Amino acid sequence: MLKTIRFATYASLITLGSFTSSATAAELKVVASFSIIADFAKNVGGERVEISLLVGPDGDAHVYEPRPADAATLEGADVVLVNGLQFEGFMSRLIEASGTKASVVEVTKGIEPIKSDEEDPNHESEEKVEAGHDHEKAGHDHAHEGHHHGEFDPHAWQSIHNAEIYVKNIADAFCEADKGGCATYTANAEAYVAKLGELETEVKAAIEAIPADKRTVITSHDAFGYFSHEYGLKFIAPEGISTEAEASAADVAKLIDQVKHDKASAIFLENITNPRLIEQISTETGIKIGGTLYSDALSKSDGPASTYIDMFRYNVNTMKAAILGS
Amino acid sequence: MYEDLIGPFLRYGFMQRALFGSLILSVSCAPVGVFLMLRRMSLTGDAMAHAILPGAAAGFVLFGLQIIPMTIGGLLVGLLVATGSGIVSRFTVQKEDASMAAFYLISLAAGVLLVSWKGSSVDLMHVLFGSVLALNNAALSLIVGVAIITFVALAVVWRALVAECLDPLFLRSVSRIGTPVHLIFLTLVVLNLVGGFQALGTLLSVGLMMLPAAASRFWSNEVRSMCVIATVIAAFSSLGGLLLSYHASLPSGPAIILTAGVFYALSAVVGRRGMLPSALMSRRHKTA
Questions:
Q1: pTM for the full model?
Q2: Is A243 close to B126, i.e. CB distance below 8 A?
Q3: What value of ipTM does the predicted structure carry?
């Protein structure tokens, strides 16, 4: 009963939000929870939308602490874009507290989520839901136990295929909120998806160039599950899916063993985490740190990964260079 | 058995570093903890641990992830809070616990503000704390340095410190070194906390200071032997916690502190001055 009421309220809020915005604004006010979604929104919305960002470049959305200004931003928004899959732990309460009438869109809607607690790589096949999806054997036995956000790994944007779904969801959300601009949004989205398609071809080619037995790398937290799933590179990490979890001695020892048995060929820092643990593993195993990967946030605009496409290309090139150089 | 206990430390460099760092820290923290306890300042350690955060944060904001600026920042702010609360309690009616609470809360809030204002939303804890599994040379040198300073300082002010713990009025009547000794002692507390942050990686590092000290109280009445017992308990907690973290795949910092907690619980029950012996003793008195 309560649920129905809540749902009805929610639904009416959405319609209400869309009415007011379509009536008043040629411009759409959009709030994105973190930098990668904001980049998608910019590409879809173009000039018609004004985008505000909650967790900025190089920020860690796992543990973000919201400010009153964030609630104010949300309140004035027409559309709120969040990743969902419990990535932004702070978000649901903030949305509630801000009393925003905006429609809240989970851009991961429609992707096939990967379970985050895969201990046994043999269970991999059961988790791949979509039949006939082309994939290599990409076992990711996470070197951690049971530290995660929720049931599913939220880092879905690390697969370009999912990014396309993100973009479509964003275009749909914009269309609903601003019917007049729908044609523009759809056209922008199509153009961007085409670019993403090119990127994907490029990424696949780059990974083809890496010998199959060299395709294991170490990062600081498990952010690349979807990347691994899609492109067949294997990632292991001491920290688990969320950066909030703390590593255990067993995790670190396991990683070092894997490196020593020549099972991992490169090790990387991430832009959002403390580098010390990775540095320690690097000194102990003698693998040089191959660079910094951008996992959960874009870089600032003067950095090497200020857009999603740049980020992906940068990550893949960094990995390729480090692996082939080793 | 042998393989389980020694093997991990022989096989992995990071385990050796973790053990070395936490053992050194045990030697230096535990005696400080004993004095904190004897001076009824057991909770001060916890308050100070929060108080030094903004100093470390300021160091981070200005110089990035460098151990020395973060340590100096922490030390300065820690001393400021300690002396500030001391001055307030000395010149007003307010007791030291209340002024300490006020000062450390102000300090902590300033620290959180500082980090958010800088615009970095990387988690404060992740930035400010090391991990016992990732002790680099800089962190190890810091811990060793802290231990040496603690040792020398304790040796120099030992008698005054003991006198002040047991009878501060007496010390005040025979000499005027009470205040400087108190300051030196607070410096040691802050130094050890900063070292502990590097080693254990969480606010829990206060645990390695206080739990062994509190446990030692159940075994002895004498300051010197309490310090020795506390050090031994801290050392075994470090060893046990690391092995636990290795074999049971638990986060290392909490594993070490929980091991110390087990020692505390055991001591409280079976220690020479613990519950069980006291109960037996009183029954014997009754029957006699």
A1: 0.71
A2: yes
A3: 0.73
